[in-house]
Amino acid sequence: MRCCACLSQQQTLQCSPSKMAAEEESNSRAPCLNFSSPGPLGNAQPSNNAHSSPATNEGSAGATGGAPRTAGHSNPQPGPDRGGGTDVRVEHSPNRQHTTPQSAGQSATAARAPTVAGGAATNMTASSVESPNIPSSLPSSPASAAVLVYREPVYNWQATKNTVKERFAFLFNNEVLSDVHFLVGKGMGVQRIPAHRFALAVGSAVFDAMFNGGMATTSTEIELPDVEPAAFLALLKFLYSDEVQIGPETVMTTLYTAKKYAVPALEAHCVEFLKKNLRADNAFMLLTQARLFDEPQLASLCLENIDKNTVDALAAEGFTDIDLDTLVAVLERDTLGVREVRLFGAAVRWAEAETQRQQYQPTPENKRKVLGKALVLIRFPLMTIEEFAAGPAQSGILSDQEVVSLFLHFTVNPKPHVEFIDRPRCCLRGKECSITRFGQVESRWGYSGTSDCIRFSVNRRIFVVGFGLYGSIHGPTDYQVNIQVIHTDSNTVLGQNDTGFSCDGSSNTFRVMFKEPVEILPSVNYIACATLKGPDSHYGTKGMRKVTHEAPATGTKTCFTFCYAAGNNNGTSVEDGQIPEVIFYT
């Protein structure tokens, strides 16, 4: 049988006819240099003989410290990470017909250039450096020497690994000593991955139970159709070497795999990666995954991001892909920084996508059906009558009765009951604060349609979200009220709400809130106004010109200064009157 390496390299190796004839007579002894059959290390197949044998025309070459092996196997993955190897030079020369292992120092003189042939990289290169021994089966040539160099594997790979970590890392995704294989993925994407029961059981309680528990499996091949190969390899990489290999495309599947096999340290790395890459355009997608994987800390961070960037988050493509429970969790929040009419528009977009997913026609009835309990969480009373009339009232999603009751809520007093929440959303985080400017409460303060007003300023930037007002002295009563904050110099109304409140007849104050927070800048004069319609109420006396609020946690002080508001103010002043409380966030 002819030497296939010689036939493929005719330009460098010239085979003599007489020698080829001798080889054909003893083809059972002639080697065939084939670089397409890797062994379990990606190296040559090992021999069972632990001792070296002399070089013969059968092609055996004894490697120092290793077992003999045929020259017909390749080393497609050379280098220290795959167990190392010894360079063997096969040199054609008229006078030299022997083979010898090349030492580390000698091999450095050869120019090694890995060549990819048929998808496998080989280390066979030509060299002019003479070797004292050449296999007798290879023909001689009068031409100048041509040497083919390939990496001879070394099987005591343990000697090249100085630490336990290095040795375990070497075994990752390696057939060496493997005693189990996983068929990961499904369909055409199934990947067969070698592993080691001991290494897996040490790193995972799930694997420990799988291999060593009372119902341990004895199978050497385990199917994992619900796991992505890339994620499973990331898990094994972590178990074998503590190295974390995650990216935007694999982090969610790796998190799922880490949870499935109870590897909390890898879970933490995945969550930390998601935190660092959390943005408004992916907040809803990550929120869905965080709820699915029961990651409350990540879910909380996603919700905070949505609070701060509500408009951008709602406009993101991933918003329409969330599930109904996630939509409900967002709509329930009081801290969304968006007008309610825009929130309704986003909910309609989600409903259109959901009807397609459920293969419904996108009719108003079906949109209402898929919105379900999310619809009542949209706070229609917080819209202006113009916003409601131009949008929700014409959408067909609300019933006729709901539309009528909401129009009545906007236009008449007393306002009829509606099934939708009228509590304002406050896009501010932190603890709500309030100050009281009166030291004592008295009875009988009357109303004739004139506004109670008081001028104030503060020493730092705050956001006013509402006032505390006194209620009736005649028992439980409903009041209609319009509250405002006015910029004194420009007479601009910065915030207002035409609403109502119920009191129980006590001397307590009752909260009346703005639809949106009103920004108050330091050292600027503003007027707080409240126009009440109802019976006589309690009022405050022994008023204070300066009131200071100190934050318990930080000690930060917010100082209010109150002054008389010129004009008709229904008698309210610094000393006595209405508007006893200001509710705010810093």
UniProtKB/TrEMBL annotation:
Keywords: Cytoplasm
Start and end residues of each stretch annotated as Disordered: 14-121
Domain BTB per the UniProt entry, residue ranges: 178-248
The keyword Cytoplasm is annotated on this UniProt entry: yes
InterPro entries cross-referenced by the UniProt entry: BACK, BTB/POZ_dom, PHR, PHR_sf, SKP1/BTB/POZ_sf
Lineage of producing organism: Eukaryota, Metazoa, Chordata, Craniata, Vertebrata
Intracellular or extracellular location(s): Cytoplasm
GO cellular component, one term: cytosol
Pfam (any one): BACK
GO biological process per UniProt: neurogenesis
Gene name tied to this protein: btbd2a
Residue spans of biased composition, Low complexity class: 108-121
SMART domains tied to this protein: BACK (SM00875), BTB (SM00225)
Keyword Nucleotide-binding in record: no
Biased composition (Polar residues): 44-58, 96-107
Protein name, as recorded: BTB/POZ domain-containing protein 2a
